[in-house]
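User: I'm putting together notes for a lab meeting next week and I want to include a structural view of one of the chains we've been expressing. I don't have a solved structure, so I'd like a prediction I can at least talk through. The sequence is below, exactly as it appears in our construct file.
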Amino acid sequence: MQTQAHTQAALQAQLEAQTQVPAQDHGGPSTMERFKRILPPSFKGESDPLLAESWMREIEKIFRAIRCADEDKVTLATYMLQLDLLDGAYERCTTGKS
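Assistant: Thanks for the context. Below is the predicted structure for the 98-residue chain, given as structure tokens.
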């Protein structure tokens, strides 16, 4: 899986950077900027539970690498959902169709 290898390489680079530079409280990159730098995989709404679980594991690795606060995790994970997936979910909620 090329995506997994890419994510692992990006995580390794992020971890090395964190050990070399002390954490910045002010003026440093936002949580979203740090998250996006790692190039997290997007979720395309696959129906295969194994693919969904694999995506979630990759996202959780990134959360740990950037030391993501619990209150930011939903926002960041939602950011990686593909727009057409969100549009379909919105339509189902507003029209009552499944």
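A couple of points you could mention at the meeting. The chain is about 65% helix and 0% strand. The longest helix spans residues 2-20.

User: Perfect, that's what I needed.
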